[in-house]
């Protein structure tokens, strides 16, 4: 999956898990993306 697709999935799950969880997930994804580079 591309980074954009991962972010989109996280935002879709925000409705089920809540926005604070989605923000935490996006921050974790950004950290992971930065570690890959």
UniProtKB/TrEMBL annotation:
> Organism's domain of life?
Bacteria
Instruction: Quote any Pfam family the record assigns.
Output: CMD
The name this protein carries in UniProt is: Alkylhydroperoxidase/carboxymuconolactone decarboxylase family protein YurZ
**What keywords tag this UniProt record?**
Oxidoreductase, Peroxidase
Residues in domain Carboxymuconolactone decarboxylase-like? 1-30
* Statement: the UniProt record of this protein carries the keyword Cell membrane: no
**MF GO annotations:** peroxiredoxin activity
* Coiled coil location: none
